[in-house]
Amino acid sequence: MCSIIAPSLASTLLQAIYKNVKMGADSTVDMIKRLSDGDLKAELGRQVAQYEALAHEAKTALLDMGETPREEGLMTRMSAKAGVMMNTMIDSTPSHIAQMVIEGCAMGTSDLIKKINECERQGGEQDCEKARKLADRAIAFEEDCAEKMKAYL
After folding, report:
1. Integer Cα distance of 113 and 69 in angstroms
2. 66: which DSSP letter?
3. Which of 21, 73, 99, 149 is the most exposed place for a label (fewest CB within 10 A)?
């Protein structure tokens, strides 16, 4: 008889963090490729490094739990890549790219807040404590990224 073991609430939250920050890093790298502005390019490069650091923390925590980190599905990743490409073909000004980053950060932040709330509603506050701290750091980071982009609007 085969039994299915449901992932813990903490691993579910960590998977959401991992997907979120990997998508943020990948999309930001795609935007950097379309950019000529040195200051904005440098700022986005710093953001990619922080996204990757957060992804590494989430991945390590998942591996420690015996879980395999999962990125977004291929279709979602390709859709995001195509969206960046189309948006920047139309307008690759620093202002437009900054707006794209702000919108992406808002999406990422709201997705993580939803996952945190799900975890807490299911009574997993104790189980999710470490993952919650990492999620809070990822949210604070994305909010900071959005704030820094306002200078380029």
Report:
1. 20
2. T
3. 73
- CA-based nearest residue to 135, from 25, 8, 13, 24: 13
- How many residues does the structure list for the chain? 153
Instruction: Write out pLDDT tens, residues 37-94.
Output: 689 999 999 999 999 999 999 999 999 999 999 887 778 777 777 777 787 788 989 9
Is the CA virtual torsion 102, 18, 53, 110 positive or negative? positive
| Burial class, 96, CB count within 10 angstroms (exposed 0-12 / middle 13-18 / buried 19+) | middle
What CA–CA distance (Å, rounded) separates 54 from 50? 6
Whether the predicted model's global pTM rises above the 0.70 cut = yes
